[in-house]
Amino acid sequence: MTAEPPVPATSNTAGEPAQRRRRDAAETRQLLLDAARQRFARDGYAATTVRDIADDAGVNVALISRYFTSKEGLFEACLRAAGDELRRTTGQTPADRVPEAIARHIADLGAAGLSSQLSLLLRSSGDAGADEIRRGVLVRSSEQLAAARGWRPGEPDSEQLLLRAQMALAAGIGVAVLRSSIRLEPLSSATEQDLVGPLRDLVDALLPPR
Amino acid sequence: MTAEPPVPATSNTAGEPAQRRRRDAAETRQLLLDAARQRFARDGYAATTVRDIADDAGVNVALISRYFTSKEGLFEACLRAAGDELRRTTGQTPADRVPEAIARHIADLGAAGLSSQLSLLLRSSGDAGADEIRRGVLVRSSEQLAAARGWRPGEPDSEQLLLRAQMALAAGIGVAVLRSSIRLEPLSSATEQDLVGPLRDLVDALLPPR
Amino acid sequence: MTAEPPVPATSNTAGEPAQRRRRDAAETRQLLLDAARQRFARDGYAATTVRDIADDAGVNVALISRYFTSKEGLFEACLRAAGDELRRTTGQTPADRVPEAIARHIADLGAAGLSSQLSLLLRSSGDAGADEIRRGVLVRSSEQLAAARGWRPGEPDSEQLLLRAQMALAAGIGVAVLRSSIRLEPLSSATEQDLVGPLRDLVDALLPPR
Amino acid sequence: MTAEPPVPATSNTAGEPAQRRRRDAAETRQLLLDAARQRFARDGYAATTVRDIADDAGVNVALISRYFTSKEGLFEACLRAAGDELRRTTGQTPADRVPEAIARHIADLGAAGLSSQLSLLLRSSGDAGADEIRRGVLVRSSEQLAAARGWRPGEPDSEQLLLRAQMALAAGIGVAVLRSSIRLEPLSSATEQDLVGPLRDLVDALLPPR
DNA sequence: TATGAATGAGAATTCATTCAT
DNA sequence: GATGAATGAATTCTCATTCAT
């Protein structure tokens, strides 16, 4: 519906005949990846057709097979990308700025779609490979989150802290989904400013700063 | 093929002959509803086939059309049932027992599947009718949750409080999904005892008891 | 092209509205099997589409999946049927009538399609399961053929005799294909009468009667 | 991807630098032709993809279009080549050596693939042009075979003799296919020595030397 | 009421072929 | 001459739904 129209790399200022055929493999791949991430996050795996994705990206359907082997392969690539993005947020943030970082992540509903990256992590394709990737991403992120608040593997109460970190992650993801997929009001139209306070309370309550 | 139908929720108290139960419209309906709720919650709407559901319920596929008109109709019925259940939890609970109630709800991974009721609320069918029902359920639940902590429509800061209630709800749903669908460890095997403490911290932080 | 029009079981004498829906599972299965055998024999596995077969049979495509799981499954069922038919010819024939039996088999270009059964044995689907079935059919048939001329497993010259039986079988199949698929003239329009003499010479030369 | 191209049929006598061979239209053409003949003979027309052939030949797919216009065109070229080869065998052989020539032809399972040339003649592409070529090849070959045993067009019994020649040809082709495509044992691992005796019996029985 | 046969729409994937470089 | 990106036309299979019994 509100799909971003495919913007050709070469700016198409004049009213030239809508030249298809970009002939840039890397860019085509990325266009597909972006379109897929949004569709998968918004509609779920099964409800998304490869044709939807290809149309959003403005490229031919067959290129999905070419670049990602299959719909599954494309989904896994999306998960990996979302994992990288999430790791960047939870990993490179000083302990006391974590809530802000999460808030920023959640709030970003833009085309870049950090929020949709989060929602994506709840979507299942039924494929074992994808499930494994997703669990890996979530485990690593929750460990980074816990580590930011003093968690060390093997220590006493280590398990407890990790559990709380996973709940904080779950909360963040839940908020992202209710905002971007379900569009629950007033949550859906809350700004980053609106979110950061409650999120700070939430994170600090689960993972008290030392 | 003729998979043994799962024992219906309503306990079969009387000493009736073991395999009666045929030709009972109400029971058939309930069997389908129970099977559908679990499938939809676990696998999502699009990934669930009506044949899966009918097989789980031990009844013929065509009866789904008969009793619920369509797959959409069955899904909406599931949402309504989940809404009723959720309303019972968030509505009939005194303010200071809300975290315990949520914890109980989330922890219940049994066949009855309170946890799956929560997960269900994140599942989308792409159908506008179902979306509306879901939003209704979530809005009402968050309002009840907020009301338990003193929210009244129209008052100053009313919006703020509702937003926080929705975030608490989102957190609960997020935890339910990570437990039941994603099976993230150690969250997935945490007991109700393990969950209630962190959840109390979380809810109290978002919605401070007055 | 020259596909036998699907004859409904219930004779359709009057000009009734071309009633689809036969509702007879066994018959539907057989209709598909017959249509498939002819198509596969004539055009080969890969060149035959399931839609062709279903149209020839006058039934819906989806029923191929229902009754035979897949195109592969249907092909294997055809091979098995061809094997049964062939075994009947080479197995239940007294030694000195073998050439006549083969001639009759090859000559039968009718709808029943004994000739197409033979051609089928040369068609490959690329599927390992089908290849195994085919080899089994051919081995058994050549053993029966050899046995009719005195072959016994393990005896001296046993291998030699089996080899000759396989060559006789190969000759029969080759003739069937050149007649029915390639339509090479004058071979293609030769009658059973025309074929039986040369075939007798051929078989007797390879497998001298004792 | 860049699979080592099979050594071209034409022996590379001179001591040229090992990996020249790029940019030689004639050689590229031949590489494609050799690869195609083997694939088509082994897997059939429809089951063979142009990409398979190009990969086997170690050249780019698009060159098939360039040199042979289309997949059909390549197939027809293969048929023509097989016809030339076959004509050489059946045409330039004195009457009493025909069985040996056929045996040699059938026995040759090497990369050059005389046997695969024979199998190829049974493969159909569904294209009328190819069918015509194939029939032409087979008719001419059977006429040559018959002529070696005294056949002259128009003479009495001329038709009879031609029919018998076609059956001998069919037998040869049948044996080739059962050996190379079906891999029926013990026929498949029989040597030229094993084959020549039975083949002599077969040919002499069908086409008695005068 | 219940069942299984039948159907048509739609989805993923493969593939020959055409272009732009 | 050669390459690899792109395309559109199939093709197989799945699935919700409808009918006849």
From TrEMBL, chains A, B, C, D:
<dbReference type="InterPro" id="IPR050109">
    <property type="entry name" value="HTH-type_TetR-like_transc_reg"/>
</dbReference>
<dbReference type="InterPro" id="IPR036271">
    <property type="entry name" value="Tet_transcr_reg_TetR-rel_C_sf"/>
</dbReference>
<dbReference type="Pfam" id="PF17920">
    <property type="entry name" value="TetR_C_16"/>
</dbReference>
<keyword id="KW-0238">DNA-binding</keyword>
<dbReference type="InterPro" id="IPR041678">
    <property type="entry name" value="TetR_C_16"/>
</dbReference>
<feature type="region of interest" description="Disordered">
    <location>
        <begin position="1"/>
        <end position="26"/>
    </location>
</feature>
<dbReference type="InterPro" id="IPR009057">
    <property type="entry name" value="Homeodomain-like_sf"/>
</dbReference>
<protein>
    <recommendedName>
        <fullName>HTH tetR-type domain-containing protein</fullName>
    </recommendedName>
</protein>
<dbReference type="InterPro" id="IPR001647">
    <property type="entry name" value="HTH_TetR"/>
</dbReference>
<feature type="domain" description="HTH tetR-type">
    <location>
        <begin position="26"/>
        <end position="86"/>
    </location>
</feature>
<dbReference type="GO" id="GO:0000976">
    <property type="term" value="F:transcription cis-regulatory region binding"/>
</dbReference>
<dbReference type="GO" id="GO:0003700">
    <property type="term" value="F:DNA-binding transcription factor activity"/>
</dbReference>
<dbReference type="InterPro" id="IPR023772">
    <property type="entry name" value="DNA-bd_HTH_TetR-type_CS"/>
</dbReference>
<dbReference type="Pfam" id="PF00440">
    <property type="entry name" value="TetR_N"/>
</dbReference>
<feature type="DNA-binding region" description="H-T-H motif">
    <location>
        <begin position="49"/>
        <end position="68"/>
    </location>
</feature>
